[in-house]
Amino acid sequence: MADLSLEFFNALLDAPGPSGFEAAPARRWRAEAEGFSTEVRADVNGNSYAMVAGTASPAPPPIMLAGHVDEIGLIVVHIDDEGYLWFDPIGGWDPQVFVGQRVSLLSRGGVVAGVIGKLAIHMLEKEEREKVSKTHELWIDIGARNFAEASARVRVGDAGVLAAGRVDLPNRRVVGRSMDNRIGAFVVLETLRELARAPAPAPVVAVATAQEEISHTGGGARTSATGLTPLVAVVVDVTHATDTPGVQKKRHGDVKLGGGPVLSRGSSVNSRVFEALADAAGAEKIPFVIHAAPRHTGTDADAIFTSHRGVATALVSVPLRYMHTPNEMVALEDLEATVRLLASFARRVPSDADFSLG
After folding, report:
1. What CATH superfamily classification does 3-71+177-348 receive?
2. S-S: 140 plus which of 41, 71, 85, 264, CB 3.0-4.6 Å?
3. What would the mean pLDDT of 331-349 be, rounded to a whole number?
4. Which residues contact 92 (CB under 8 A, 6 or more apart)?
5. Model-wide pTM > 0.90
């Protein structure tokens, strides 16, 4: 990974941006895109767009590459008389992860630091020690002495993230929060950087979509795809690496860190787009894994596939360990392989491509 891309990668991971509050990472994403894109913009839903023109004339509809830029987080729902903050999760958390964590709250005055509190084990009765923690039993302590002090710094509705920095481990493995799914937003823009050097026939639009983690109605993926009406769309997200203890591969597949991108088949995936991606991987000698999605993918692909009049959509995922924790782990070679795959795919899509099934 080039130094410039690595600097962008680090900055994107560090920018706090839970669903509905993605402005900071979205701004960093667009700032990076300005260096090589022919058009960069944002919309009212919080989606960010960057485009590289194609070589075909007249220009066909664009190829859409989508990765969501939001992350899971939390939101303040109450400030009590003693100055403690009570919160709800944004996105799918295991409440056990919250216990004892530091938090960064995004207030109008800047970032406010705090810690998630719980009764110490010494104060719990025996039967209480054996119970799992529930979110409504936990609170955030920002060091305030009372309601007045706390409310002067934080308002109800302020969002936050767990305060966890990026750590480099051996074998080019990286740990940090927000990998799900800054990885996807990073990969689609890095693909655009590559295509700026050698364009595809069709224009390519990278989209950093908003609110995927809470997108019960499609979030930014649906609105962005409806506005673009693309020729084809590829969603980039993360998926569970199953190379850790206790995972049943018969149920969850055999996905390894460093094993290359994962191509989904099934729900919300156009079979012709899948085959085109597999062919591109073969041509580039990129190893990949196939994942079966019999019902829904749980990603932006579900919303894009059914947006507007329907979009030929595929899903490419990067293996990830410890999903939805502040210590998610990826292998950098998987990111690089996914960029190569998407660039090759885009260049192989003819301007008059037809992905109709039948």
Report:
1. Zn peptidases (3.40.630.10)
2. 85
3. 97
4. 72, 213, 324
5. yes
